[in-house]
Specification:
With about 140 residues, this protein is of the alpha+beta class. The protein has one domain. Helices cover about 35% and strands about 30% of the residues. It is built from 2 helices and 8 strands. Strand 3 and strand 4 form a beta hairpin. Helix 1 runs antiparallel to helix 2.
Length: about 140
C-alpha cells in the first residue's frame, strides 16, 4: 500500500474519532441538562441514607439512589478526577445521613466534597434521555 494511502487512512480515522468524540461530548452535555431540568430545589441532607445505586454523569456530577426509587443529583466540588470511570465509590456520611458541604464521595482514595444535593425525577429524566438517544 502506498505511503500516501496509509497517511490518508490514518487521517480519516483520526477525523472520524474527533467527530465521534465531539458528538459524545455534546450528548453528555445534553444529558446533564436533562438531569438538571428534572432536579428539584437543593436539600441540605439525605436522612436515612442507604446506597442502592449510583451513576456518574461527568467528573462533577453524580446520580445517587439513596433509598429505593429515591434519586438525587449530587454536584461534586472538583473536578473529581476518575469519577466518570470509577467502578466503585465510597460515601463518608455519618449516622446514616449524607450532608452537602460537609460530606464527600471518595473515588480511588481521593475525597471529593459534595457541594449540592437535589432530589431528581429520575424516571422522567431517563425517559427523556432514551428519546434523545433514539434521534
Amino acid at each position: 500500500m502506498p505511503r500516501n494511502a496509509v497517511i490518508a487512512a490514518i487521517v480519516s480515522l483520526l477525523l472520524a474519532g474527533c467527530a465521534s468524540l465531539a458528538e459524545r461530548r455534546e450528548f453528555h452535555q445534553r444529558e446533564l441538562a436533562i438531569y438538571q431540568s428534572h432536579a428539584g430545589a437543593p436539600v441540605e441532607e439525605i436522612r436515612s441514607f442507604r446506597l442502592i445505586s449510583w451513576q456518574p454523569v461527568n467528573e462533577n456530577t453524580l446520580l445517587l439512589e439513596a433509598r429505593l426509587n429515591r434519586w438525587y443529583l449530587l454536584d461534586i466540588g472538583g473536578p473529581c478526577l476518575g469519577l466518570e470511570f470509577a467502578r466503585a465509590v465510597v460515601f463518608d456520611g455519618t449516622l446514616n445521613t449524607l450532608r452537602s458541604r460537609f460530606d464527600s464521595v471518595i473515588v480511588e482514595g481521593v475525597r471529593c466534597r459534595i457541594e449540592r444535593i437535589r432530589p431528581i425525577d429520575y424516571k422522567a429524566a431517563r425517559s427523556e434521555i432514551r428519546a434523545l438517544r433514539q434521534r
